[in-house]
Structures are given as C-alpha cells and as structure tokens.
Amino acid sequence: MNVLIVCESSFGNTRHVAEAIAAGLRKEGHQAHLYPVDQAPREISRDVDLLLVGTPTHNMTMTTAATRARAVDEGATESPTIGIHEWIELVTPMRHLPVRTFDTRTTGGFLPSAARDATRALKSNGFHAAKTGQSFLVDPITSGLRDGELERALNWGMSLGSVVSGTPRAG
C-alpha cells in the first residue's frame, strides 16, 4: 500500500505523531511518504492508496494564519506558510481515495477536533471517502504529547492497511 501523509505542525507534536504513524505503516510493509503541509503535492498521484491528513487543533478547529502567527509568538518551532485548511482548498480532489484525518489537541473537559473539521472540509472539496481518524492528546501543562500517544500513533499506523481493502482507487 502506498500512503501519502500531509501534516501541519506548529510545536512539533503533530509532526511527531505523523512520523510514528509512518513508522507503523512501514513496519507493516507499506510505503509512507510524509510531507509538511506547505510542501505537499497539490495533485495526488494515482498510485496513492490512502491519504492521511494531520493537523493541530488551534482555537477548537484547524489553524488559521492568525493562530499560526500566535503560535510563533508563543514559541512554535515550525511555521508553515499555509495550513491544512488552505491545502485542502488547493489540492485536486480524488472522489474515491480513502482519507483519514488525525489531530493533536489538549486534554480537558471539552475536546474539540480539528480532525473532524478537516474531514468536513475534505468532503466539501470532493474527497467523498474521507473519515475522521484519531486524536492524539497534548498535555496542557507541558505542551508535549501525553505518555503513550506516540505508541498509540505507531499502532494506528500498523492497523491502517485494512482501510483500503476492497476500496477503488480511481479519482
């Protein structure tokens, strides 16, 4: 299986999750190609079997230019020129390509999901086989991933081979 992973990250957490997912896919013998959002292809190759889209949660949804700028002011180590939302608007949709979204978000009583919002945006842009995948938790005190989240991401990556069984790949 050939997997394209497009990931936006500000503080590195979402990138680390994406790397762990890619490692899990590779451990199962799949090809995984990881791109930062601002370097991701706008045309998806027809040999891609699965698209994974990862985003941090800012202000209870996907990032905006304003939230990315605020993240930089707060010490973000990465500053993409565009976010996942903008990339979704630019990428040429593939109607039947299986897509799974994932996000990082803080723990707490109310847990908004940028992955859910990315799924909606992907479907709106013509990716009809998009589904919300996983959320990976960031500790609000340390701003780092909670213990066990990278292992959970690795395991999710290992399990993703079942997503494409029996699914047509045509755009």
**How many β-strands, per DSSP?**
5
Query: Which secondary-structure class do the elements indicate?
Result: alpha/beta
Strand residue content: 15-25%
- Low-confidence segments, ≥5 residues, pLDDT <50? 166-171
Number of domains: 1
Helical residues, percent: 25-40%
**Strand line-up across the major sheet:** 2-1-3-4-5
The coarse silhouette is: globular
Would you kindly provide a written description of the structure presented here, covering whatever features stand out?
There is one protein chain. With 171 residues, this protein is of the alpha/beta class. It has a single domain, classed as Rossmann fold. 31% of the residues lie in helices and 21% in strands. It contains five helices and five strands. The protein has helices at 13-27, 65-73, 84-90, 114-124, 149-159; strands spanning 2-7, 31-36, 50-56, 99-106, 130-138. The protein has a five-stranded parallel sheet. Helix 1 (13-27) crosses helix 5 (149-159). The protein is globular.
